[in-house]
Design a protein that fits this description.
single chain, about 300 residues, alpha/beta, Arginase, Chain A, 8-stranded parallel beta sheet, two-stranded antiparallel sheet, 9 helices
């Protein structure tokens, strides 16, 4: 039993524009870091395309059709299609988005079958800002939500998602707001884009746990939030499957925000979550890449995350 690394070359072909922080270099940097000797036991798998049925469990049909239809056609014709000031498509974006969502589905299948202990999906574009009916915030489809609904199809009913990206996952919160059998927990900087994530936002069934952190908060505050709120909420919920939205832009070196985590903090959080999963849900954990925009810090942080996954 070991950890799967799931990716696809198409994920490097999504190009949101010159100077955009969510660049192909992010994925290239992570994959170089995970090619070192200590990671040679990773099971390396190629992400399939997500099917329309899988996408439409998490998203409105109209959004799926727009991204894969008119916006993809415009991007292929003109070289670029703008969704909002932060979010755009290039000729390779639709394929990348299908592979990114498909990676989460394959990860669920591999973990559910017992072929691997857990999985890290090194994919882009990221997903946690994509709402049920809207692409936004660098995100086209909500990869972790697509994976979560795929787990439901596989018979894992109670789904927990923990998100430690520096930005609040408004899309994941939107998709699972009314779902009593889904628990969404987020640590994030506040105030910050997208402006959601107050501790008062609790979901229709109290199933949303937002743990906003002030600017300059670091590892001590992360551990405090996990130990006081996140881990007790997980223990009470008792998930069948645990997902991680693994954003590394809360690192002290990241240019897009003002938290002060280190790579050791990401490793600690990963071990804490895997320890919970080992007790509660047969160690079933799927992690998917979200943010992280300082390349050196991203490489170290993703390595620490995967290293922790490999311990379980």
């Amino acid at each position: 039993m070991t950890t799967a690394l799931i990716t696809h070359p198409a994920c490097r072909e999504h190009d949101p524009g010159r100077g955009h922080p969510e660049s192909p270099a992010r994925l290239e940097t992570i994959l170089r870091a995970l090619d070192g000797p200590e990671f040679q036991t990773l099971v390396r798998l190629e992400a399939p395309r997500a099917g329309r049925e899988a996408l439409e469990r998490a998203h409105h049909v109209a959004l799926v059709e727009t991204i894969l239809g008119p916006l993809d056609q415009q991007a292929r014709r003109d070289g670029f299609a703008s969704i909002d000031p932060d979010t755009a498509m290039s000729p390779g974006s639709a394929e990348a988005a299908l592979r990114a969502a498909g990676a989460a589905c394959l990860a669920v299948d591999e973990v559910a079958a017992g072929n691997v202990s857990n999985a890290f999906c090194a994919v882009r574009p990221p997903g946690h800002h994509a709402e049920r009916g809207s692409a936004m915030g660098f995100c086209l489809f909500n990869n972790v939500a697509v994976g979560a609904y795929h787990a439901r199809k596989r018979g894992f009913h109670r789904i927990a998602i923990v998100d430690f990206d520096v930005h609040h996952g408004n899309g994941t919160q939107d998709i699972f707001w009314d779902d009593a059998d889904a628990l969404y927990i987020s640590t994030h900087q506040m105030p910050l884009y997208p402006g959601t994530g107050s501790s008062k936002e609790r979901g229709a069934h109290g199933n949303i746990v937002n743990l906003p952190l002030p600017p300059d908060a670091g590892g001590r505050e992360l551990r405090g939030a996990f130990e006081a709120r996140a881990l007790p909420a997980l223990e009470e919920f008792r998930a069948d499957f645990l997902f991680i939205s693994a954003g590394f832009d809360a690192h002290a070196s990241d240019p897009l925000a003002n938290l002060a985590f280190t790579e050791e903090d990401f490793g600690w959080a990963t071990r804490a979550l895997c320890s919970y999963a080992a007790r509660a849900c047969g160690a079933r954990v799927v992690s998917t890449l979200e943010g992280g925009y300082d390349l050196a810090a991203l490489a170290r942080s993703a390595s620490a995350h995967v290293r922790a996954l490999m311990e379980f």
